[in-house]
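Propose amino acids for all 948 sites.
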């Protein structure tokens, strides 16, 4: 698309059903009651001059440019704060208004640099635009008096500059930080002529303040006061392409604004159904990895992992990969190979990888990263509700009265949705947080949780059973809903189970460390506080009882009737951009697309007829099973697309042993990641900016990914997989991902109504999209559960086998931080390292004092599996006896410490409970030093000199 600004109607749309008719400049218009005059004028294409108004924030009325005249009314009211009225007659352009506006604009310009021709915002500046709109041609006031023109620029933020000399103090940046982001990091300091925008205290600059670099202030600024450094360096964009972010599971829509083939900036798309024009630091700014010097752009091969890499052409790499796969299958059998799909790649690419394994390798040894994150969600919600996904769209939170967050940290992991949630909390919704750590939402500006239940890691099921005990024994269950919508006999069995006195808050307090009185109050609030919505994350699923916890959450929602309407539901916050889609596409070894079991004859025949091959009816190996089988000598080759299992999966030493035991490891990725240390073939991948396809976010929303630039490696990822399939002898002839989506829709009932044409026209669709739900399904289970009757499942608390003791007295839990994403392969190659250059170990002051540790000291973190070193961060965010770290930096390799204990149903690793000891350290462990040496040796590339 060519470049044009996103439309700005000045003030938000009114949701009122009542309609009001009025006349603006002789044109009749009917708009919702509560609309402003400015909004109504914009609806008919009349642009009233404005500087302080923008349509994603509340009316403000400070700039005085948007004055209008209204028949029968005194004065010249501001159109941005004046509501429409029936029969109102409005004039937006009169000699009187023209004179007033010119005078106001003259005052603005008299204290503004006149460097428009060399300003980075030239042609993209609202002040410049509005000066032309009001007809300003001269400024009568000189620059001799007091002014703000000499103020110094703040360039501390790596992504944008703050130039106060160009600030008109319209307050849009401050209001964006407050209303849109909800951080309240900016303020207007001083009064009158001395007023100025300030980030934090007088001693702060942007980088040291509480600013989270979401970009809302930059987007709101009408001048060059807040400006992306990329715009300064490259220039203003000349075209834009709407696409979908490739970071977390929120699925924000962006305009990739380009100048030629060069990306200038990513601007959140106001029509994005998941983000509504908002963004976070990753999606908004951290796209530089796409052009990073570490990217591998040519295929490489080597015979042994001790050899240096050799760059080759695509044909040679693919031929060699196919010959190795055939050799291994001929020698060790058809089940000696497998593949791992990527939750960062598109639905179409993921679908092709699992198709390659099933139809090309001849087995079902395919798995995905959901194995190590949300596989318990799939199992638990399918068991209780009948479908393996969350029940609501994100906007549903706007109708929630009570929000229960368990095992999730939305402000760091899903920040754009967190801003929407915070807005609802500021409006009065109550918050319950169940988490061992004091996440930001427990207490932040204008928000405080009604209850924070800091449970002992590993006791989720016990806490939820205790909450259910209170609800059932105090008569708070919604019996009408249960009788109509659920299996009554199963409910009675479950109710009898949770009513047992040994599951009361008092009986479980010693186990969970949650005060019984607090837990009782939290349970009562959830059951009686109105619409109750549950949001959970990896702090639920990454446990030995992950599936049990998901089912316990479902039990809680069903017994209170909090399912099937807006403002309620069970909502897993998916970690990666397409982890939902990867699961939907059949990436698990036991399921084809749409969560249908491979052993079902009718389902299997559907795929066999379409693909023209016979499929194995036996479920394949999960990732941990593949590694075990490799160590045992029977699993010999793997194709890994876009996943770094050596850094992300538990017990790093065991993962390394499994990879080292294989004879052919094919890594298809952007960079030589940690897994590539053990690879024999490297196929360069393409970024989300270089491909077409679709992602499915955490709310089941399918959105288009549009190619912004040509792939630097020469092929989109689906093309690489197709080329490998054809090298193996398959006959694939896809020309565009739209054809792959057509195949998905043909074979997958929940996607039956999805096509690229529909997505292009409608923006997004939420599955299921089929004859029963032709327009998609924002809310699931409205009139009944997918499985028929909701199923209550007894979830008994079973302690983890991972025990603390004298040698390992502390419990380690892990998570992520706002500035980084997953293993950090992308964000570590951006300026986001300014906020988080290393993994740190959070430890309570009491535990630190017991060990003689000071903040910033190097410490040894040891478990039964291994040990690593990192620096301590002393904080009371964690309780005594609990420590916490992130896993974004390979230098730390935090997963060398985690164990192989896993969820009983899905093998999802128990990352959140590891018994550890922490002690002072003088430097890296022997393992870290050996690993650094291995990495350096493994990444050697033998460049062939050009012939003379």
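Proposal:
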């Amino acid at each position: 698309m060519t470049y044009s600004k996103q439309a700005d109607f000045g003030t938000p749309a009114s949701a009122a059903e009542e309609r009001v008719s009025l006349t603006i400049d002789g044109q009749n218009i009917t708009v919702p009651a509560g609309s402003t005059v400015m909004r109504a004028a914009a609806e008919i294409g009349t642009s009233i001059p404005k500087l302080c108004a923008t349509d994603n924030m509340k009316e403000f009325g400070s700039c005085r440019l948007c004055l209008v005249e209204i028949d029968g009314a005194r004065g010249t009211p501001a159109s941005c704060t004046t509501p429409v009225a029936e029969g109102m007659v409005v004039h937006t352009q009169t000699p009187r208004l023209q004179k007033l506006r010119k005078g106001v604009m003259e005052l603005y310009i008299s204290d503004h640099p006149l460097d428009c021709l060399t300003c980075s915002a030239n042609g993209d500046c609202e002040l410049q635009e509005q000066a032309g709109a009001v007809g300003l041609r001269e400024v009568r006031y000189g620059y001799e008096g007091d002014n703000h023109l000499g103020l110094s620029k703040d360039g501390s933020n790596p992504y944008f500059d703050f130039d106060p000399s160009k600030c008109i103090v319209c307050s849009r940046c401050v209001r964006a930080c407050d209303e849109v982001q909800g951080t309240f990091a900016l303020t207007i300091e001083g009064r009158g002529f001395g007023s100025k925008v300030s980030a934090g205290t007088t001693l702060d600059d942007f980088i040291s303040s509480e600013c989270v670099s979401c970009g809302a202030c930059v987007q709101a600024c009408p001048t060059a006061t807040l400006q992306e450094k990329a715009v300064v360096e490259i220039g203003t964009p000349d075209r834009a392409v709407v696409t979908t972010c490739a970071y977390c599971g929120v699925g924000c829509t962006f305009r990739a604004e380009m100048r030629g083939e060069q990306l200038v900036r990513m601007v959140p798309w106001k029509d994005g159904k998941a983000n509504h024009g908002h963004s976070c630091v990753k999606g908004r700014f951290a796209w530089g990895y796409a052009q990073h010097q570490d990217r591998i752009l040519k295929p490489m091969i080597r015979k042994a992992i001790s050899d240096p890499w050799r760059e080759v052409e695509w044909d040679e790499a693919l031929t060699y990969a196919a010959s190795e796969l055939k050799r291994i299958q001929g020698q060790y059998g058809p089940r000696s190979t497998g593949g791992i799909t990527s939750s960062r790649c598109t639905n179409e690419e993921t679908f092709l990888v699992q198709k390659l394994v099933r139809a090309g390798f001849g087995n079902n040894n395919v798995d995905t990263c959901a194995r190590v994150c949300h596989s318990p969600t799939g199992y638990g919600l399918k068991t209780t509700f009948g479908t393996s996904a969350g029940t609501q769209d994100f906007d549903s939170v706007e109708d929630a009265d009570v929000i229960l967050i368990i095992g999730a940290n939305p402000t760091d992991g899903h920040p754009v949705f967190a801003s929407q949630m915070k807005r609802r909390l500021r409006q009065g919704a109550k918050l319950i947080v169940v988490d061992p750590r004091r996440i930001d939402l427990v207490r932040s500006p204008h928000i405080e949780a009604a209850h924070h239940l800091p449970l002992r890691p590993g006791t989720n099921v016990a806490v939820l059973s205790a909450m259910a005990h209170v609800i059932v024994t105090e008569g708070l269950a919604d019996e009408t809903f249960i009788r109509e919508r659920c299996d009554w006999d199963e409910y009675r069995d479950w109710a009898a189970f949770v009513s047992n006195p040994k599951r009361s808050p008092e009986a479980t307090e010693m186990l969970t460390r949650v005060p019984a009185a607090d837990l009782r109050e939290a349970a009562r609030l959830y059951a009686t506080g109105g619409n109750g919505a549950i949001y959970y994350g990896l702090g639920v699923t990454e446990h030995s009882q992950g599936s049990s916890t998901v089912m316990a959450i479902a039990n809680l929602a069903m017994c209170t009737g909090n399912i099937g309407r807006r403002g309620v539901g069970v909502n897993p916050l998916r970690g990666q951009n397409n982890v939902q889609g990867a699961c939907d596409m059949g990436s698990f070894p036991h399921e084809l697309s749409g969560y249908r079991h491979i052993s079902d004859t009718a389902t299997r025949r559907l795929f066999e007829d379409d693909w023209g091959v016979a499929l194995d009816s036996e479920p394949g190996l999960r990732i941990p099973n593949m590694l075990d089988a490799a160590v045992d000598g029977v699993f010999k080759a793997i194709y890994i697309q876009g996943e770094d299992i050596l850094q992300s999966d538990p017990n790093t030493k065991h993962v390394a042993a499994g990879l080292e035991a294989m004879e052919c490891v094919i890594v298809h990725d952007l960079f030589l990641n940690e897994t590539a240390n053990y690879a024999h073939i490297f196929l360069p991948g393409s970024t989300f900016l270089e491909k077409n396809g679709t992602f499915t976010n955490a709310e089941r929303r399918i959105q288009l990914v549009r190619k912004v630039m040509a792939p630097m490696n020469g092929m989109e990822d689906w093309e690489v997989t197709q080329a490998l399939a054809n090298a193996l002898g398959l006959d694939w002839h896809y020309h565009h991902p739209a054809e792959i989506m057509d195949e998905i829709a043909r074979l997958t009932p929940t996607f039956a109504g999805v096509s690229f044409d529909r997505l292009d026209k409608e923006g997004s669709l939420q599955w299921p999209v089929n004859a029963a739900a032709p327009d998609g399904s924002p809310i699931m289970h409205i009139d009944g559960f997918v499985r028929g009757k909701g199923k209550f499942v007894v979830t008994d608390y079973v302690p983890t086998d991972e025990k603390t003791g004298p040698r390992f007295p502390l419990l380690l839990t892990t998570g992520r931080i706002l500035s980084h994403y997953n293993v950090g392969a992308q964000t570590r190659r951006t300026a986001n390292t300014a906020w988080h250059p290393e993994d740190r170990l959070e430890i309570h002051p009491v535990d630190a004092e017991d060990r003689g540790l000071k903040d910033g000291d190097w410490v040894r973190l040891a478990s039964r599996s291994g040990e690593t070193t990192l620096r301590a961060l002393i904080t009371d965010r964690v309780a005594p006896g609990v420590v916490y770290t992130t896993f974004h930096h390979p230098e730390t390799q935090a997963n060398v410490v985690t164990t192989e204990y896993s969820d009983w149903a899905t093998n999802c690793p128990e990352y959140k409970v590891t018994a550890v000891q922490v002690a002072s350290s003088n430097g890296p462990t022997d393992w870290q030093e050996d690993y650094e040496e291995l990495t350096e040796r493994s990444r050697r590339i033998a460049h062939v000199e050009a012939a003379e």
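The chain has a mean pLDDT of 95. The two ends are 45 Å apart (CA to CA).
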